[in-house]
Amino acid sequence: MKTTLNLLLAIMLLSSSAIAQKFITKNGDISFFSSTPMEDIVAHNKQVNAALDVETGDFVFKVLIKSFKFEKALMQEHFNENYMESDKFPNATFVGKVSNHADIDFTKEGTYNAQLVGKLTIHGVTQDIEETGTFTVSKKSISGKSKFNIKVADYNIDIPKTVINNIAENIEVTIDVGLKPLK
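RE: above sequence
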C-alpha cells in the first residue's frame, strides 16, 4: 500500500498538466477525539502529507501513525502497540477526489463546501468514505478542513474489555491542511 500511495503521489505531482494546479503540504494537522463517561482522549498529528490537484479534484493524504501525540505517554504507547499496531500498519491514507471540484473556483478567494469521496485506509483496512468539508482559497494557499466520525470496529481495531469503557466506539476525526502551490 505504501508503494501504491507513493506512486499515486508521484504521478499526481509530476503529471503533464500545469504545475500551478497542484497544491501540497507536509505538515497538515489531523486530530482525533474519543469521549466516554470515563475519560476523553485527544491526539494530534502534525506530520500529514497531502496533495490536491485542483484541475482534476484528486486528493490524497498520508499520515504516520506513530506521529500522533497524546497528553499522556502511556496512552500513546497503548495506542501504538496495542490498538493501532503501528509497527505492522505504520500509515493511514486517503486516496480520493473532491467530487464537486468543478463547483469550486480555486482561483477566487472564498470558502467553498466540498464533497470528498474515496478510500480511507486505517490499520490495514480500506473503507469507502463520503464526507464533507471546506476549502478556503486565499492568494497564496488553500486551506482544507473536514470533521467526521469513524467506527473503530470498521477498521478491525480491537479494544480490550478491560478498557472498553474508556474508548468510544465512534471517534471524531478533524482534518486541517494548509496547501501551498507546488513550485
